[in-house]
Amino acid sequence: TRTEFLKAEGMDTAELTVLSSLVFDFTDVTESAEGWHGFSVADAHFADNGVSLGRNAGGVSRAMQQAWDRIADGSATEVKFAEDEISLGAAFGAFHQADPDTFDDMLLELASQTAAAPLADSPSAAIAAANSVLSCPAFATTGVMMDEGSCVWSRALGGETTQGANGDSSGYTQSVGGLQFGGQAALADGWFLGSGLTYENSWFRNDSGSEKMEQQSFTGAVALKKEAGPWLFGFVGGAGYNWGDSKRYINLDTLTATAHGEPDSAMVFARARASYEFAFGDEYYMRPKIDLDVINMHQFGYTETGAGAMNLMVDGNSDTAFGVTPGIEFGARIPFLEDWPARLYGDLGVSFLTADSWETTSRFAGLSSMDSFSTFTPIADTVGHVTLGLDLAKRQGMELKFQYDGAFADDYQSHTGSIRFGYRF
Predict the structure, then answer these.
(1) What is the pTM of this model?
(2) C-alpha distances in angstroms, 341 versus 151, 336, 375?
(3) How far is residue 112's CA from residue 360's CA, in Å, rounded to a whole number?
(4) CB 297 within 8 Å of CB 265
(5) Structural domain total, the chain
(6) Which tens digits make up the pLDDT trace of 209-235?
(7) How many CB atoms lie within 10 A of CB 101?
(8) Could you say which of 23, 153, 187, 211 would form a disulfide bridge with 114 (CB–CB 3.0 to 4.6 Å)?
(9) Same structural domain, 51 and 173
(10) Residue 108 belongs to what H/E stretch?
(11) Which pLDDT score is estimated for 31?
(12) CB–CB of 348/321 below 8 Å?
């Protein structure tokens, strides 16, 4: 691969020397048979050049080194793109301007991270979906003991999630709005069958604004519950599918391009819950509980367009996370109308997950063959949950519920507000 680094005119070449850069070593200046004076690149050092790199930038540096080495030894060839798109040679040449202060940032221009944010958010999405189909309680005629029943409900929600930067993994913000529909039917002997379907539209943006994505998703869940006095046991199974459009704005020295992608992903999840209710008189209650979750996440492969050789060919990938969430709910029965009591409640819990990052593997489209390199998007793995709500629910009849859900972890926070309309039979 050839690119023009320097052009000098004049007759005197006695003092002409070419200094090595951070990435490139050059040969001495020589004179050709035609009288031209020139030099060549002796070697490239995208990796192991003395600059300390983070995990993601290090992966990109090794990929660039691999691309250079494979072209140099003839084991791969450059894939050509349109003249207005970035060529592999031009991308190599841009790093001639790199110095120790800019090298890391230049490498990260070639990585995609925000497109994997929905996968990093999958455990939280699965936990929220499972929670939504495990809640159709109402007070008994008197007192604070609650029992399940048959109901239908709909819910509107909106919120924002912020993931801070972690190492050299970019932070991002997610804004979301959605609708849920569900219901529950009483079976026999204290058994209940519930289900719910959620549609959400989300917008993702990384901290620098260089990556953006709009995503839509459907999530469905089915719950089977058994009520035995103050005990409640629940089992949930569900799945979700995400699809969207991503943009990655590349600015590499004088090179600019926008890489477009269509990253799709899916998840399958299951939960087991056990809870027990303690009544304190006729006004207050406490309900400790524990949830066990398993979430499988899958990224479908896709190829970007628009950035030439720097388009990423993203591999399909899967991972499974296990989680445990001990929690406790406190509540009070408040007089509202004669046959329509109000329930004021709060819920505290902590989720412990086995996964702390999502690994994306990809290759540059500008090379005929190369090994995939990895970049990582953080997953909040120890998350505190806070829920506050007001539930106006007749034992039979209309229900109106207002709820806030917050989640907090290192460099992570999520806030969601919702209003739910329901009817109990």
Answers:
(1) 0.89
(2) 17, 5, 52
(3) 9
(4) yes
(5) 2
(6) 999 999 999 999 999 999 999 999 999
(7) 8
(8) 211
(9) no
(10) helix 103-108
(11) 74
(12) no
Tens of pLDDT, residues 286-328: 999 999 999 999 999 999 999 999 999 999 999 999 999 999 9
- Of all helices (H) and strands (E), which one includes residue 51? none
- Please indicate, yes or no, whether residues 231 and 317 belong to a single structural domain of this protein: yes
DSSP calls for 149-181? --EEEEEEEEEEEEE--BTTBPPEEEEEEEEEE
Neighbour-count burial of 174, counting CB atoms closer than 10 A to its CB (0-12 exposed, 13-18 middle, 19+ buried): buried
What pLDDT shows up at residue 146? 83
Is 13 contained in some domain?
A: no
Does 339 lie in the same domain as 241?
yes
Phi, psi of 86 (to 5 degrees): -70, 130
Of 132, 145, 130, 233, which Cα lies nearest the Cα of 189?
A: 233
Q: Please say if the pLDDT value at position 409 is more than 90.
A: yes
Q: Inform me whether the pLDDT recorded for 2 exceeds 70.
A: no
Give the tokens for residue 337.
Answer: 């109308």
Token pair, residue 152, equals 């239908």
Which residues are CB-neighbours of 7 under 8 A, at least 6 positions away?
none
Whether residue 229 is found in the same domain as residue 326: yes
* Distance of alpha carbon 161 from alpha carbon 178, whole angstroms: 14
Cα(398)–Cα(389) distance, integer angstroms: 17
**Residue range(s) defining the domain that contains residue 81:** 24-108
Q: What are phi and psi of 399, to 5 degrees?
A: -130, 140
Residue 304: inside a domain: yes
In a domain, residue 402? The reply is yes
